[in-house]
Amino acid sequence: MAIPTMYWENGTLYLLDQTLLPGRSEYVACRGYRDVIRAIRTMKVRGAPAIGVAAAYGLALAAREAAQVPDPWDRLRAAAEELKNARPTAVNLAWAVDRLMEKAAVRGAQGVDVAALLLEEARTLQAEDEAANRRLGAYGRDLLPHGARVITHCNAGALATAGYGTALGVIRAAREAGNPLRVYATETRPLLQGARLTCWELMQEDIPVTLITDSTAGFLMARGMADLVLVGADRIAANGDVANKIGTYALAVLAREHGLPFYVAAPVSTVDLATPSGAEIPIEERAPEEVTHVAGTRTAPEGVGVWNPAFDVTPARLVTAIVTDRGVVRPPYGETLPRVAGPREAPP
Amino acid sequence: MAIPTMYWENGTLYLLDQTLLPGRSEYVACRGYRDVIRAIRTMKVRGAPAIGVAAAYGLALAAREAAQVPDPWDRLRAAAEELKNARPTAVNLAWAVDRLMEKAAVRGAQGVDVAALLLEEARTLQAEDEAANRRLGAYGRDLLPHGARVITHCNAGALATAGYGTALGVIRAAREAGNPLRVYATETRPLLQGARLTCWELMQEDIPVTLITDSTAGFLMARGMADLVLVGADRIAANGDVANKIGTYALAVLAREHGLPFYVAAPVSTVDLATPSGAEIPIEERAPEEVTHVAGTRTAPEGVGVWNPAFDVTPARLVTAIVTDRGVVRPPYGETLPRVAGPREAPP
Hints:
In chain A, 40% of the residues lie in helices and 17% in strands. The first copy, chain A, is of the alpha/beta class. In chain A, strand 4, helix 6 (167-176) and strand 5 (182-186) form a beta-alpha-beta unit. At the A-B interface, helix 7, strand 6, helix 8, helix 9 and strand 13 of A face helix 7, strand 6, helix 8, helix 9 and strand 13 of B.
């Protein structure tokens, strides 16, 4: 990607405003942690790994603010909670904040400058996420047959991560290895991340992509025009149930109906062994206006009721394999996931 | 419906411009048959039964024009072909034009004024369509359990017909019989007929409706929030395969996965016994701009490839029952459909 999802400069976090893509490439300047929370809530930055990294920088900003008040730790812990609650479904957010707060507690007690430490940790997390995606891509690329026609949903690309992407990371890796695959990108209502972001990312790298509406995917499979489905994830429960963008579950059911593999690509930071199954994953419900308006224009009658869950849960039984940065994991996930996502070590 | 889908006045067909709803209620004046073709192609009038009736009026306009030229029958037959080709999938269009041309041939040979005859026949067809929908509603309403939560797709309402509607006709009839049902309307990308038209129709009659994106329907079922799916049809093949708005097939697969009934409501004019199965139904593919733009705003990158089939085919094995104006038809459709849709008689 020529254009980074986010960067840090002169004490400020700059987030690429993904609500404006592909029309405009503009950055939002976040000078305090509440700017970061606002950007996460309004989805200027989105994608489970990307909001994890953004929240880490947010914590660094919060530490700088906390240093000005009498009880900096209270202030920092409150900011950490606020950051973790910015969006409920993606677990990478809480994972990143908790990881940084643990380090801050240990090193802070040793007298280290916490704000500087947290900034350094955020930078490390960002670099690790991209590195994890590249490993994940290398593990996953062999799952794609030569010339595969891949359906993907939403955007699990460089824009959803610190770089390279998860589902799109596997696609990039396969392409780099010479696989002449092609992609069908679902537009992904309501916020059109597939149309706006996935098409844009793939076209920048000359990976052939065809845009379809979400409800065209089933007919595409029925016509024999697709070989597999490959998506990202916002949280993977200990039993292998996968929370991901609304519409993922329907794709998984349709893939099973047509005998197509259904793959999920996510770093182990997306696996939440503390959540036993999908039933315990909180599913964010967002504002009706995302559905009643498109590109600022009202398209549904005033006052209509709306149900707008941002995510759904795909049961583990429909997931052929999960591609992680520590290898490809297959059922039974209750046994295989803890092996890769258990007590964390530093990446090799 | 306070607002008719179309009406004839002073030699002109007025079509409610459905592309402007719900924001504006304006009529397009069609003074020649090519105005009608243009309105059908641009979906100012849409819905299989409604375009059948509009084409019938179009033929009346064509006959008036043909009366001015040396060889009126050649001109009229050419116009009939043009009208039939305005859109390929819905069979009601060809059915209406063929029915009127047969009558014109017989009565024209007897010296009757063909233009006046065709206008009278168009009016008859319009009245018959609404009457058929009311009968269909009465047959279908008992399929809906008390307080049913019904998923419908696209708009199979008064706006898609000469009045009352097919799928929404069943819903109206159940409501009139005191059933406190509620509806989940899929928005129906790309042209949002569910959001724009179905919600509007139902809200006008105080029928509770909740709008969802197309890809939310599967999760809605998984959560146990829906009892059945009920849709219209653009063409039903002799074996019971159903062509309907893109996305219908995915809903049928999901309904089966969740053990929910999947009902299709359509007048017998939508049954095409001359088409053996869904494989022979021509599926219209429409312009990429319908997907790359929403409400006039570009949302996908310039130059992206698009596959935009307007319809899909749901195999008969997924269809629990077909509600027609001659009764509820159940499998095996190859035997039961010819009984209701065979050689046509005048309706009772």
